[in-house]
Amino acid sequence: MVKKHGKKQRAKKKAQRTGAAYSSAAAGTTHTHTPLPDLSALPLVPHGSWRVLDLDLAARLVAACRAGCQPCQQTLIPKVVKENRATLAALAGAVYGAVPTVGFAASDTTRQWAPLARTAMQAGSGDEAFAAVDAMDEAAAAALLDDALDHWAMGDGPILAEAVRKVAEGASRRGTTDPMDAFRAAGIDVFTLDDLDLGDVDAYHLAENYGVFVGQTTTPDGQPLPMLTLYPESEGAGIEDLEARTDWDHWGLHGMPDVDLSWRLRATIADRSLSGLVHVDDDGQDDIELWRAAQTVSLPADWWALLDRAQHVLVVGPVKEADHQALQAAGDAGELLAVIARVSFH
């Protein structure tokens, strides 16, 4: 049920982006899309040695996508696919090099290329990622660009730019001499957690974490869906933290976000309780833990029954406090992120 609805939502988003009913296009009028987005962070994306980006072309394409202008997209997309593969690699790399997952709706081409983009961002070298883009046939290259533009079209540009800058800065720091080596060279003893041999360290409390409360919503096709809302439990928890650690959609309490099966809400059958909200990597290991139950609390029978039927849950947040009015206020202010996660029963 949720998967089918997700397809409808993605189709609706794409229809809005491609602007099939754009009136000025039907009238044959000339138009531009202003203001153009700031893509000054794009050259920080590794896109192949000595390759020159066409930032003007990229900005005009992103602006056309945000305006839903199909005629401009039909003109500009082939130019990027056929003539500007480095620009394509940079636009896609800004998305898939800086986020941990590609999302449920991504094409096979994007799923196969995304690990190269993440490696390129971490290493600061995009030759291998660019070579893969350069070798794609036009259909595959267009699919990759289309997936990336879905992110750019949603107004995620500032978020993507900030993520690119953070990852690029991290790669730059990793490429320099370890500052701890300078202390050691000066005769100062430096110890790490590994040196101290403290055993397994629980990383959960080293990162920001959240509390949760349960609720219920209705999908646009009238089906009930369980909902889990996050609120901050540590000082740095909030929307900036979630933006940095997830690739969840910005959500305004209407429609449905994408499904991402890498996000798991863990539920315990024996006592009808929830134990945690995590993201798992390609090997099935937890790599992000946003919430962990401090104690066992049995859930209402009707909510548990809905969770069991749906097998998925809408996860949304952050709100300032555990209150449904706070949820409405955050939605009205445009300060919510959301994803549809899989329920993992055990």
TrEMBL record:
Region Disordered: start-end pairs: 1-33
Q: Specify residue ranges for compositional bias: Low complexity.
A: 17-33
UniProt biased composition (Basic residues) = 1-16
- What name goes with this protein? Uncharacterized protein
| Species annotation | Streptomyces thinghirensis
